[in-house]
Design brief:
Blueprint (H helix, E strand, L loop, with lengths): L11 H4 L1 H4 L23 E3 L4 H13 L6 E5 L9 E3 L2 H6 L6 E5 L7 E3 L5 E3 L1 E11 L4 E12 L12 H4 L16 H12 L6 H20 L15 E12 L2 E11 L4 H6 L3 H10 L8 E3 L3
């Protein structure tokens, strides 16, 4: 009997917000000892179990007059559903009443893109890469080099935190919302034009992004279940990883937002008809020479 391959893994450890946040503590913050935690994961608290710790940290940032803006997310919803951006503690502690939440430090200094059609105003954006996981032990992780972009519809500002089209980028599920489309090559040209100086070209930033993906999956697979993803030789998985870029001390630092299992790939199939053929070749036929797929395992 021929061996059977499955497009499934014990994926919740890396795709559920509350699990993916558990390995983080903080960026270089003197209040929280990071214990080597990665710079690509925002300071995060599970408000179900860590509300007292969050309250202490929130007050500390207030006392130090540091930016205290947080994005509150449900542990297992997508498309920006039930998410809020706020700097008000009273509001934050009430939000879990609609379901379990995590609080992530909001990226208040994101890398922005200047859009000519918007009178050269700067908007927030995020980036989605498709990741292909072929093996846990040894780790065999691939990334599709064609990435996808989402843009806010209004110029970025920290003045109105409740303005969805300023602070969120998911527009394709909102009725009557303008959806800005831009392919990755156009984006790379614009990015390099605006940020290419001081050793910040997209090719350099992309290597930091790939390193972030590799470290995230190493963290998720280093332990045996239930603390890590179980190894299964007949299992494969396709993920989408969403990220933003933050400017820290004049350096572009990728920040992981979330990782989704079996994401919506309609746009990929529409613009790149060969997309799923490449995915299938890498995951199920062990053909890793696809020109648009890169091995980032090591």
């Amino acid at each position: 009997m021929a061996s059977q391959l499955l497009n499934h893994l014990c994926y919740f450890l890396i795709s559920l917000n509350s699990f993916s946040s558990s390995s983080s503590s903080s960026d270089n913050d003197p209040y929280i000892d990071p214990h080597g935690s990665p710079p690509w994961l925002a300071t995060t608290f599970n408000l179900t179990y860590e509300l007292p710790q969050f309250a202490i940290y929130f007050q500390y940032r207030e006392d130090q007059q540091l930016d205290n803006t947080w994005i509150i997310k449900p542990i297992n919803l997508t498309r920006s559903i039930d998410m809020s951006v706020t700097n008000t503690f009273d509001m934050i502690i009430r939000l879990p009443e609609s379901g379990p939440k995590i609080a992530c430090k909001y990226i208040s200094s994101p890398v922005l893109l200047r859009i000519p059609e918007m009178e050269n105003q700067h908007v927030k954006f995020d980036v989605r890469y498709v990741l292909l996981l072929r093996s846990i032990r040894p780790l065999k992780l691939y990334v599709h080099k064609i990435f996808w972009l989402r843009f806010a519809n209004k110029p970025f500002s920290m003045n109105e935190l409740d303005d969805y089209e300023t602070h969120f980028t998911v527009m394709n599920y909102r009725p009557n919302a303008f959806l800005r489309q831009m392919n990755c090559q156009t984006f790379i040209s614009m990015y390099n034009e605006q940020y290419g100086e001081n050793n910040q070209t997209w090719s350099i930033v992309e290597q930091r992004i790939f390193q972030m993906f590799r470290e995230a999956f190493q963290c998720a697979t280093i332990e045996e279940p239930p603390f890590g993803i179980a190894s299964c030789l007949s299992s494969r998985a396709l993920y989408a990883a969403d990220l933003m870029l933050e400017m820290i001390d004049n350096k572009v630092q990728p920040k992981l937002l979330e990782i989704n299992f079996t994401p919506d790939c309609h746009r990929a199939c529409t613009f790149y008809p060969n997309f799923y053929n490449q995915v299938f070749n890498v995951l199920f036929r062990n053909i890793s020479e696809e020109q648009d797929v890169i091995d980032i395992s090591v």
